[in-house]
Amino acid sequence: MTPPPCGCADVGSKSMAAMEPTIFPASETGEENQSLISDVPGRLKHGGFYDDPLLSHEAQCDVFYIAWAILLECFTGLDNVCFGFRSEHMIAAEYGTYSTDGHTSAMQVQVLADQSVQNLRAGKHAALVLLPESKARTHFNTTLTICSLDNKQDGNAHSSSWCKIHMRVDPVTLNTVLSWNATFMTRTQAESISNTYTKIFREIAAHQETIISTLKYCSEHDERQILAWQGSPMSNVQRCIHQAISEQGTLRPDAEAVCAWDGSFSYAQLLYLSDRLASHLQTLGIGPEVFVPICFDKSKWTVVVMLAILKAGGIFVPLDPTQPLLRLQALSHKVEAKTILCSPHHQAMLESVAPELIPVDTQLFERLAEHRGEVDCGSWDNGAYMIFTSGTTGEPKGALIQHGALLSSALAHGPAMMMDNDTRSLQFAASTFDVSITEILSCLILGGCVCIPSEEARLNAIEEAITQLQANWALLTPTFVKFVNPANVPSLKTLVTGGEAMTQAVIRSWSHINLINCYGPAETSVVSHVHRGMREGKNPLNIGRQVGIHCWVVDRYNHDRLMPIGAVGELVIEGHTLAREYYKELDKTNEAFIVDPAWTYHQPHSDNPRRMYKTGDLVRYNHDGTFHIAGRKDAQIKFHGQRIELGEIEHHINASASIKHVMVVLPKKGFCEGRLLAIVQLSDALANDLVPKGQPYKLIDGALASIAHAKVEETKALLAERLPAYMVPSIWLPLEFIPRLQSGKLDRKQTGKWVEEDMTEAFYRQLNPIAINGDSKTLTFSNETESELHKVWTHVLNLKSEQLGLNQSFLSVGGDSISAMQVMSECRKRRLGLNVSHIISCKSITALALQVRGIEKPTLLQESVDAPFGLSPIQKLYFSRPNHDQGHYNQSFLLRTSRHIVEADLRKAMEIIIRRHSMLRARFSRDAGGEWYQRVTEEVTSSYRLRTIEVASRDELNHSLVDSQTCLDYSNGPLIATDLIYEIGEQQRLFVVAHHLVIDLVSWRIILQELEELLLRPEAVSDMDRPLPFQTWCKMQQDHAIAQTPEQALPIHGIPDSNVSYWGMEDVPSVCGQVTGQGFEIGPAQTSLILSKCHEALRTEIPDVLMAAMIFSFGQTFTDRPIPAVFPEGHGRESWDHSTDLSNEVGWFTTIYPVFAGSNASSSLIDTIKMVKDGRRKVPDSGRPYFASRWLTQAGEEAFSRHWPLEITFNYLPVGSLFENSFHPLTSYPT
Q: In what residue span(s) does the Carrier domain sit (predicted)?
């Protein structure tokens, strides 16, 4: 082999310093049941190349490493790649050996798209270096070895455990073997890599003059697989949107179509009102292809207006009333609008936007003439609506969607996102955001109800709004979802996240309901990909499969080149859901929407021509045909769910005469993470001495600092007149100089790296000096409210106290709408009532303090200490058992800790928790009549036991744990015990056990989350709201149960009596010693189906399927008797009063209730599943009223006692529902 001219460089060489890590990405899921190392054989032979007599054997071998370098460039997207390298010829070469003294040889290759293979072979872009193994581990995870495959010892020489992929090539036979770590990637991915390497090798071997950018990467094997993944034909519905909605109205005229804060409409009412308005609009000249802007706050009338414009044949164009007037005027002018429909109170503001304004409210319809019959104008290929998206030239682009496109998309993405005629869709998104189209039109197309909160509730009380509107389906951004507590929105059954990447935090919090990840540009009618069943262990960047369309991954620089499976490329979408055009933007339309790329010519297809949309999003195929989001190929970003072209912001900043150069970035890490940052260099006219002074990044200081601040404020004011608030950067860096490339362009890559990685805290703290704002560094608070607000702002915005004055606005110090929500949340913890609009609009903390209203502490938080009170239903059941005092009845968990815990810190945290949760201080006794009661004490130290123990063996550990299990005493305490365990050779562990009388699994989640928080942040106790006392809840529940009749608690008839005599258990005590256990396991594929896909058809939940399987099996097995009812457990925290929050209370709340699927065995498992699903849904509040009536009232005991003793009980605990973050369970012992 011809050695690279630089030879084998020393580890300290310049080439080593410039070497970037090349880490091959792991596939979505490795096959952990595979052996550690698996092999895929292959063959490279290409006769034409090896018949060339002018090429030496060494020169021919150069192609091996060049092909591997190109493959790595293809899969990683890096221009400079490195990999472990070995060749038999290296041993005798003068420039070094493969490995010596703990060093490893690595090949570094610069793969330039505009270079030919021959130039790469000339050696100008390759270097061989020696790395210490420790450095090699961080710089690459693939190796290439050129050797005889018969020499197994040599062939395995580089197969280090830290290398995930190892390609061996025989230079004589041209056979290959790809070995890979089977937990790192799947066989499908490995086969794709082997086939891609063969494809690249044959391409470059046959055509030495080929430019790298024109090479075809995708092998025939991969292309066949990609074609197979396209699945069913693309959706193509040639009808109008309003026709589909009218059909739903015909089928279900009385069903609720709109449920808004300002009123509701049935389908019949919605169709009638929209027909009347549509008829009126037609008299004004509105028909097919006529644009009609609409400008509304959240209201029921928005839906009427949208539907009326569609019926009249027009195209509705949503405008946001909060955006600058200049922007509204520009958008209206672009579509040549003659008429705008709006909320009445926006009429005055919009007078300069269009010639005619129509305010829509009840008074308008009182004036409109009656209209009989349905208005239905236009065709499926007419425009329906237009959504403006950000544009690089400073002008928004209008994506024009036709009726057929949205209808084709909605009928595909709606069911995929679990929308149907039972859906109550939360209309949360702004009308200018394309998600609102799905929330409104897709929901109506499928017969659901649109639930519209007020703008006030949307920003400040969304949990209450969801509950009041009884919304059961929502599409929210992950950024916003963190402000919603799942326990406070019991009606929500399906949560879809989109607009930005999902996070693991969302999965941890919401996987107990139907959690869905979705993706889709506005240009493809809102949603193109759906991933259902998101749960612990799934990658949040997996956007799932396409719905109603076909998708392809192409080279980011050349859409005529298809990428192989696993390689990063641009996502291209094909189908009938695409926008018609960017309105009046022919060049941009032709750039984004392409026809018949080269790779389509040999594919079988019915459509001709084939039209596709280039999304600009970088993705890669996973091994199962789903897609993994990998970033953007341009400067477009997603910010709080909104698509933003940074170039549009820069365009408007450059319009300021004060600005010479500007860069706008959204850092992914560092001190400015997650906030729009404008880096500006002021104009020469203002400061002609601004030149580099040895520091590449230096803030303007001295006498010019105040001038710079004034100019920045002028520029921000200019932006506020032209851009929406979310597009105005919250942080500004006026630098003396922004580094340039040799071409004179701004060095965006280096500056972006500096912001994310190299900006110091000292530099960041200079960004908002009080001196610039003319404020005194000595803060004098007029009252406690100002002081508390100041603390909250500095905490949320990551500022030091001296950086924040009292006379600065929230936006001026880096705040935005999302951080304003965080401020609102923190203020409420301090009993300070504020709305998001107050925080954003007030000019200073001083002014904001005047807006604060006090939040009273709940009156129900008082409890009587040492006063007896009644038991909860499940506690009554426990004491009703004759053997309740035999043995121990505890729940316990053994946890490992991810950080060392000091006993003193643990003791302090435990005592805080025991003080917070009174049931951990409870005691249980009998009264004079023999009835059990409970009371709470003020005793803390006697309520728990904490030990540090050292053990030398597992037997010794078990003995200690048994001692902790048996030390609990519900009459005298303790009720909870904690052991901090040290065992030789083991990580520190924590054992916690509590008596079941005072705790359940939800309580464990609360306790462990609080324990973790207190160990990390001891001051966190001040942030924790006092929970509702269990004593208060027991009294409330008893009163409510007495007020209800048994028929109200369980409005179901026919529940069969218990028949324990069938089992020979009549009058036989049920004790643990008589229990026989049977267990079984199912494989990963079946588990995956049960947890996700099998619920799609019937809209079931996991307990439905599991109980149905049990009931069906019972009927098939025990044919000599009727099928009994099954009694599942519930968490018991459903309150009839939505203002009662039980989500943070510790106690034993568990309920048990009947589910009955009929006495006779069904011959169909599907029918059984349907009956179980219906049976569960019919029981009010998951059985809490039934269980309370049974154990707390005389009437309930008489009505329901025949159900007991229970024949079959059922309990389902979702995977990963208890532990997260720093604590990880080793073993759990619920007893």
A: 780-856
Query: Which tokens go with 411?
Result: 């009928």
Residue 153's CB: how many other CB atoms inside 10 A? 7
Residue type, 554: V
**Integer distance in angstroms from the first to the last C-alpha of the chain?**
68
CA atoms within 13 A on the CB side of 1049: 28
Distance CA 761, CA 764 (A): 5
- The span from the CA of 1206 to the CA of 1154, in Å, is 9
Show Cβ contacts of residue 1137 under 8 Å, excluding neighbours closer than 6 positions: none
Domain boundary among 217, 249, 281: 217
State the average pLDDT over residues 95-121: 70
User: Which DSSP symbol is given to 116?
Assistant: B
Q: Please name the amino acid found at residue 889.
A: Y
Question: Would you say 475 and 498 are in contact if contact means Cβ atoms under 8 Å apart?
Answer: yes
Other CB atoms within 10 A of residue 31 CB: 17
Using CA atoms, how far apart are residues 249 and 307, in angstroms rounded to an integer?
A: 13
Q: How confident is the model at residue 394 (pLDDT cuts 50, 70, 90)?
A: low
Query: What would the pLDDT profile of 422-454 be if each residue is shown by its tens digit?
Result: 999 999 999 999 999 999 999 999 999 999 999
For residues 886 and 1073, is the Cβ–Cβ distance under 8 A? no
Quick count: other Cβ atoms within 10 Å of Cβ 924?
Answer: 20
Q: Residue 545 pairs with which residues in a beta bridge? A: 530
Same domain (yes/no): 991, 873: yes
Q: Three-class SS of residue 1214?
A: coil
CATH for 917: 3.30.559.10
Q: What is the pTM of this model?
A: 0.66
What is the rounded distance in angstroms from the CA atom of residue 41 to the CA atom of residue 193? 11
| End-of-domain residue from the set 854, 882, 904 | 854
Q: Are 1192 and 1042 in contact (CB under 8 A)?
A: yes
Q: Are 1151 and 873 in contact (CB under 8 A)?
A: yes
In contact, 980 and 945? CB cutoff 8 Å: no
Q: What angle do CA 732, 736, 739 make, to 5 degrees?
A: 95
In contact, 413 and 547? CB cutoff 8 Å: yes
Strand order in the sheet with 339-342: 356-359, 339-342, 291-295, 315-318, 383-389, 397-402, 581-582
Task: Give the helix/strand (H/E) hosting 1033.
Answer: helix 1030-1043
Locus of tokens 């339309």: 589
Q: Which domain holds residue 345?
A: 241-531
Cβ contacts of residue 625 below 8 Å, gap of 6+? 229, 545
Instruction: Spell out the alpha helix ranges (H) of 145-299.
Output: 152-155, 187-206, 220-229, 241-251, 267-283
Amino acid at site 148? S
pLDDT per position as a tens digit, 715-771? 888 887 778 777 888 888 888 888 877 666 788 888 888 888 888 877 877 765 433
Q: Report yes or no on 1230 lying in a domain.
A: no
d(CA 472, CA 420): 11
Cα 27 from Cα 5, distance rounded (Å): 36
What span, in angstroms and rounded, lies between the C-alpha atoms of 347 and 297? 12
Count of other CB atoms within 10 angstroms of residue 935: 17
b/e string for 653-685 if b means 16 or more Cβ within 10 A? Answer: beebebbbbbbbbbbeebbbebbbbbbbbbbee
Compute the distance between CA of residue 989 and CA of residue 951 in angstroms, rounded to an integer: 11
pLDDT at 19: 64
Strand 611-621 relative to strand 593-595, pairing: antiparallel
- What CATH number does residue 698 fall under? 3.30.300.30
pLDDT > 50? residue 1055 = yes
Report the CATH number at residue 581.
2.30.38.10
CB atoms within 10 A of CB 961: 21
CA distance 728 to 723: 7
Residue with tokens 């504020």: 834
- Number of structural domains found in the chain: 7
